[in-house]
Structures are given as structure tokens and as C-alpha cells.
Specification:
mainly beta, Immunoglobulin-like, 2 domains, 6-stranded mixed β-sheet, 20 strands, 0% helix
């Protein structure tokens, strides 16, 4: 039984909570001083990792594979191996899923958020078609069960290359034609206790009725453009409809200033949008 969880976490690698992390080497450090409950009632550690390293918290992503050719349907697959040499097969649901997978092109122009399935041998896989060739990062965010009542929350990543030529086919939906836009209504600041306000507008700049996606009114995945480090954010509370749009508020802990590209996923009128928005954290 793994014992890196809340009760006896003694190996923890440089960590980030709901924000963009440092690029410090993955050397052992003291265990996080606090934890929180998962939706299943288990105690889980704070998030360890920022999506730029293959190994965090004793967990390593390996055997990463992507479709060989752009524009051709294929599969993404990988395994998570623990430091004891065993492939991990026991995970705790977090944000309604046992694992969240982000596939992002090196230049951040292609982004996919997937929920793969786990085979008996510990291999995660999902169907995937990528529109552009190039180098991609495959980022897994998960809570691995450490013991009967706790889990280790980690984010690890691998890389793979997709060949071929750019696909002329657009994505399945053209969000811009649907008239839904997102924007930040205030500057973003680094620090341990920040706040981010996102305004969602429909046609004519009017407020919209937001549905939920994976148990939240929005999922925001941000990438610092200089390093590719990841910030995964969820709203603090429900949406507020105001005259100039629908507002969502997020708690932030950005540890690094710089330019970011955020992919905002939200549901309007039953349709799931994935909308990019750029911002600078000062």
C-alpha cells in the first residue's frame, strides 16, 4: 500500500496549488502541511506539479503515444507508474472523473481536454484526432489512492510528436459563430491569494445562462507561454448575471508573472464551448 498520502507523505516534489508553478528541479521536499476532502470523502493532498515534468510526487508518466498523423483519427495512451515500480490502477474521482487529460501543442495553438478510460493493465487511452502536426505535451491530472482514506493529487506530463500535414477541416464547432465570448474584467496578479473575474457574454453582449460541466460552471486551463506550466481553475461560486454579462469569480495562486493563454470551457444552451483568451499576470 502506498503511503505518500496525507497520513504519511514524506516524498513531495515542488508543488503548485491552483496556479502556475515554479520550474524548480524535482527534488524531495517537506510534505504539504494541509489537505482537503475529495468529492468521495477521501482526504487528498494539495496539487503537486505544474504539468512540465514527467515525474511528480513519486508518480511518473510513461509509454506516451499520440496519433501518428495529423487529421487522422487515432488514440492517445499512457501509463502512470509509482516509485515502487508498480503501474497505478487505483484512482479517486476528482471533479467527477478519475483522471483529466490535457493534450496541448508546444505552441499552445491546439488544446484538448479528455477523460480517457483505464484498462486492467493500467493503460489509459482515449480516441483523439489532432488537426496539426508537431510536438505535443500530454498532461495528466489525477488523484491516486494512497491508502483506504486518502489520495495523492498530482499533475505529470509526457511528450510525443504527430506527423503529417495540417488538416484543412475546422474543429467540430466554430465557437465564434455562436456569438459567445469570454473576457477578464480586471488585471491578473501573482500571489498566494488572488482573484480572477471572468465575464461571459452572448450575442449582443448580453448575459447567458450557464450550465454545469463536470460539476462546475466553468473549467479554466491556463498555460504560461514562456514555460508551458499549467494553472487549472474552477469558480468559487455560482454565476452572477449582470447587465454587461455573466460573471464568474476564481481564486488564484499564480506563482509566476508573465503572459498566459487560458482555455475556458463552459456550457451555454447545452453546448460545450472551449474558448481561448490571453492575459498577462503582473
Amino acid at each position: 500500500m502506498r503511503k505518500l498520502g496525507v497520513a504519511a507523505a514524506t516524498l513531495v516534489l515542488a508543488f503548485v496549488v491552483s496556479g502556475c508553478g515554479s520550474t524548480a528541479p524535482t527534488t524531495p521536499a517537506a510534505a504539504p502541511a494541509h489537505s482537503h476532502d475529495s468529492e468521495t470523502g477521501d482526504r487528498i493532498t494539495p496539487l503537486v506539479g505544474d504539468g512540465t515534468r514527467a515525474t511528480e510526487f513519486g508518480y511518473t508518466m510513461e509509454a506516451v503515444s499520440l496519433p501518428r498523423t495529423a487529421g487522422v483519427p487515432g488514440r492517445v495512451s499512457f501509463r502512470i507508474r509509482f516509485l515502487d515500480g508498480n503501474v497505478v490502477t487505483d484512482f479517486i474521482d476528482h471533479q467527477t472523473k478519475p483522471l483529466h487529460l490535457y493534450v496541448v501543442r508546444k505552441d499552445l495553438t491546439v488544446f484538448r481536454h479528455l477523460h480517457p478510460t483505464l484498462d486492467k493493465d493500467g493503460t489509459w487511452s482515449a480516441r483523439l484526432t489532432l488537426p496539426e502536426p508537431g510536438s505535443y505535451r500530454v498532461i495528466a491530472e489525477f488523484v491516486a489512492r494512497a491508502d483506504a482514506a486518502s489520495g495523492d493529487y498530482a499533475m505529470v506530463a509526457g511528450t510525443a510528436t504527430v506527423g503529417g500535414k495540417a488538416s484543412p477541416a475546422p474543429d467540430a464547432a466554430d465557437e465564434a459563430d455562436q456569438g459567445v465570448t469570454v473576457a477578464f474584467d480586471r488585471p491578473l496578479a501573482k500571489g498566494p491569494d488572488g482573484e480572477m473575474a471572468l465575464v461571459v457574454r452572448g450575442p449582443g453582449g448580453k448575459p447567458v445562462d450557464l450550465g454545469t460541466y463536470l460539476g462546475a460552471y466553468a473549467h479554466v486551463t491556463g498555460f504560461r507561454t514562456a514555460t508551458g506550466s499549467v494553472a487549472h481553475l474552477h469558480p468559487l461560486e455560482g454565476p452572477r448575471q449582470e447587465a454587461d454579462g455573466t460573471r464568474l469569480t476564481f481564486h488564484t495562486q499564480f506563482s509566476d508573472a508573465g503572459d498566459y493563454l487560458f482555455y475556458v470551457q463552459l456550457r451555454v444552451a447545452g453546448f460545450l464551448y472551449t474558448l481561448p483568451v490571453r492575459a498577462r499576470v503582473s
